[in-house]
Request: fold
Amino acid sequence: RPSLNARQSLVDLEHARMQHTMLAHPAAELNSASLLSLPRDVALLTGVIPRQQAFRQDNHDDIELVLLPDEDNEDDFRVMERRDNPQGRRGEEMWVSAEQRVVRIPDSQVQGERISPWAETDYMQALSQLASDMDAMDLTKCAKRFGTVTLPVYAPGEARPWRFHPALGFSKVPS
Reply:
């Protein structure tokens, strides 16, 4: 309908909220329509709006992992967890090893005769290329900015709750 009565109708309330969220407002708040006015390379950052306007409430804690270059082996990476530094200034972060939280799946378990990943699976090569494309950004800084993943913590104390393969990403280890 052309005019909505959000105080009298739940359907109108839903449509009014959707209209408010999806259409740009003069107050320059960030919403779905904001993507249309951004340059194409920035508009692809589609994770920004869901973080600010969650579709559903999460009732679990999250861990944020980053895949950092391994100083000992330049072709490999370490899985690190971002935490707030309790001894540091407010908002200061620290990185602790999260390798114990992740079981790495060997390539032999996802490949076979005429079966192989079709996408680019060399994370370090892709990270190096991205850092180069970003005006020779430091590799570690590039990883902290673009090589992160947020995963839910399902069971506190679970020793290895996630498995990982570059072609498949992260998945929960079955119980």
Q: What stands out?
A: The helical segments are 10-22, 40-43, 48-52, 123-133, 139-146. The longest strand covers residues 61-69.
